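Exercise: predict the fold of this chain.
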Amino acid sequence: MSDVDQLKALRVRIDSLDEKILELISDRARCAQDVARVKMASLPEGEKPVFYRPEREAWVLKHIMELNKGPLDNEEVARLFREIMSSCLALEQPLKIAYLGPEGTFSQAAALKHFGHAVISQPMAAIDEVFREVAAGAVNFGVVPVENSTEGAVNHTLDSFLEHDMVICGEVELRIHHHLLVGETTKTDKITRIYSHAQSLAQCRKWLDAHYPNVERVAVSSNAEAAKRVKSEWNSAAIAGDMAASLYGLSKLFEKIEDRPDNSTRFLIIGSQEVPPTGDDKTSVIVSMRNKPGALHELLVPFHTNGIDLTRIETRPSRSGKWTYVFFIDFVGHHQDPLIKDVLEKINQEAVALKVLGSYPKAVL
């Protein structure tokens, strides 16, 4: 068979496979509609249905990756299935997601990575506004940054947990690549000002010191805001990501300028619904201890004794008094697990206050 004939045969096979894929996706979408009808029919009058189940989505994605035999890698397969699930869920009820805006931020990228592109994403001007929108029921979930692998904790998010009663329903880890962006009118040899979020400026500090040591660094509310400003200025540049570059029509003068190639940010999904155990979970708590010698040791002993893996511990000033602090702790396990219950009970006996922020599936990717 000639090369031309082989190509024709392969294209015919691809067309046939595409038709089968479309048929299967349509079947899945109709099944999602049936799920919605069953849920609505079984609900007591006046009660709102819960269509999105974080534990169910986490299980599906992990199961698909376990079945995957290539040639597409697990990350790509998970991304494809997440979008199918997102579109099917939108037939039941489109999710409304609040994130730290404006459009084009890494928070929006994290929201779309976790929920897919079929959601209604709503930008907020500040992290506290994301919490308020979720608390008011104006959106289903919120997405907020909590820590960066280079610069550490995002304190505005930690402080917001002290002020609002929110449940953590999930987490997203996003690899962060920063680019130096310029507009069509930018005179690249005359740049006197570089805009970005304070965290991003810090994550690119060494690169900036080496390449633009005498240029003013201006911290703004978000990377997307930085990109917007550059559009109208001939002597400025912005540090931001791919989404902001595409959204605001900027070009990359330099790519991947972050100081650490593994630079990543962890985001939390906040909502109002408790998430059942999946067998591969994390839990976040806030603990306030009595101000006495050995308080931190007493807090950590139950975790050590029971072999509980702590993944993060942060301190923040307490709102209850001067020079008093609260501890934010993440650890492996679900608060409904018998062992975790026992650990939390022991901590509660010594603590002034203990608040479980939520148990949720570990980030799939």
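Check your answer against the key: The chain has four domains: 53-93, 95-174+266-273, 179-262, 275-361.
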